[in-house]
Amino acid sequence: MSISENIKKYQDALPNNTTLVAVSKTKPVSSLLQAYNAGQRVFGENKIQEMASKWEEMPKDIQWHMIGHVQTNKVKYMAPFVDLIHTVDSLKLLKEINKQAAKHQRVIKCLLQIKIAEEEHKFGLKEEDALQLLDKNIQATLPHVSIVGLMGMASFTDNKTQIEKEFKTLSILHQECIKQHPQLSVLSMGMSSDYTLALNHGSTMVRIGSSIFGARNY
User: Fold this and answer.
1) What is the pTM of this model?
2) Residue ranges making up the domain that contains 120
């Protein structure tokens, strides 16, 4: 199937309240334009410089999502345009996003990345650390940041029971957080291999790459 047919397939299959993030990392602009012409407006990248160069070339009605680990010294390159950062995992990073967003008179939306996978190398906050970042006293010091939800990545495994358990953990935390912080409407979880399980546990945003664009070009 072509890229545009794949986009159409997901547009038809996903519930109305679910955002499809087309993960376009390593893909050329020509591939992104095929998705764009099929109606896709939300693209996810995991390297800031690659995202910035695509932003310069692509139409300006696209929402760019940063889905990779963020180094604080690179925030300035995406601050003028990034719509949503999925991978906030420290107060230090939030402060830097706030500082750089202020320079452009912007408020940048962020998700707190929660560590749900068992793999050691995966990034993310512990539950209690995430709750600390949502404290209104901390939020008051970050007027150029808007935390709008949570994000998590399940373990890279074929064990569906384990993946479901991890998604369920994040889903429960999300529901608890919403009681205190109703603005946290986004739950970003699920990728090409496990998005149906994620949807079953309340995901509102799925990050699909290889199933749309084919294998990565490394």
Assistant:
1) 0.96
2) 3-212
